[in-house]
Structure formats: C-alpha cells, structure tokens
Design goal:
The protein is α+β, with helices and mostly antiparallel strands. The protein has a domain at 46-167: Chitinase A, domain 3. The protein has three helices and six strands. It has helices at 3-17, 99-104, 156-167, and strands at residues 46-51, 63-72, 78-81, 88-91, 113-118, 139-148. A hairpin with a 5-residue loop joins strand 2 (63-72) and strand 3 (78-81). The relative contact order is 0.20.
C-alpha cells in the first residue's frame, strides 16, 4: 500500500473512531442550602427564672411594677420595652394585660427576672397587633419585678405614668386580644 493511501486510510479510520459522541459529565448537584431549623412554637407558657428575687412574692390580685422587653420568638425583633423609661404597672389577674403575663408573673419575687415564652393563644392570637406583632406570633418577654403593692406607685404617681405612656402613642405593654 502506498504511503499516501496508508495515511488516507489511517485518517479516515481515525475520523470515524472519533466521531462517537462522548457523553457530557453530569452537572454537579447544587450545594445544599444551609437553613436554620424552624423555631418550635410552644403549646403552653414557658417560665424561666433568670434571677430569683429575694423580696415579696407576687400573687393574683397584686398591683406590680415591672420593667420588660418584648420580642418575637421567630425573628428576635424587639417590639416594645420599658427599659430606660417609666416602669409599667398592672394588677395581676385583672385582664389589663395579655393572659401570658397574668399567668407568668405570679410566683416572681421582687428583684427577680423571668423570661416568659408566650404562645399566641395567650398573647394576641390569630390577629396579632399589626404592624409590629403578626398574627399567631409567639412572644418572648424578659420581665424584672421591681415592686408589689403600694410600692408599685398607686395614686398620683401611677396616674402620671399612665399620662406619660399615653403621650408615647404606643401601647406600654401588650393588651388582651380583641374578642
């Protein structure tokens, strides 16, 4: 066979041998998205004493003075706080605050600090308190019990605090859900 034919035959064989389509490699799977696990919603009120006070113990019917910071469980967004302002006063069990407070503050001692994780059914329910508190929101409150009874600021001092809170044009603390 002449060298030209030999080269031609090799080139022809090589071209047919290389014409087979090579499969493309499979695309790499997208990296897994790293997400935080969902925050579990408690079914009931959770009370955690951060500091146990040494003073008198609060009970149903007591007028108390507290400092608090309220935030959303899912986002940690602080929607209200009395810290750095006038302390908030209320009577335990009178219905002037959300049920989670009426159930979560009794048993605290003056000087104590307690964390309350309050499910929506004991807070603002399905409707929330827009725009800061969405419906079905679980709330977390850090509460410090400052005083009980007459020390809680009855009389003119209490009226003055209520007027100052009204000037802020925002609720001083969570109110019971509308029925």
């Amino acid at each position: 066979m002449s060298p030209t034919r030999y080269l031609f035959a090799c080139a022809l064989a090589l071209s047919f041998g290389c014409s087979e389509k090579v499969p493309e490699p499979a695309p790499e799977p997208a990296p897994a998205r790293i997400t935080e696990p969902p925050v579990p919603e408690p079914a009931d009120l959770i009370k955690e004493d951060l500091v146990v006070g040494t003073g008198a113990e609060a009970k149903d019917g007591d007028k108390v003075k507290v400092h608090y910071t309220g935030r959303l469980l899912k986002t940690n967004f602080v929607f209200d706080s009395s810290v750095g302002k006038k302390p908030f006063e209320f009577t335990i069990g009178a219905g002037g605050v959300i049920k989670g407070w009426d159930q979560g503050v009794p048993g605290m001692k003056v000087g104590g600090k307690r964390k309350l994780t309050i499910p929506s059914k004991l807070a603002y329910g399905d409707t929330g308190q827009p725009p800061k508190i969405p419906g079905k929101a679980t709330l977390v409150f850090d509460i410090e019990l400052l005083s009980i009874g007459d020390d809680a600021g009855a009389g003119d001092a209490g009226a003055k605090d209520k007027k100052e809170n009204a000037k802020d044009k925002k609720p001083a603390t969570p109110k019971p859900p509308a029925k």
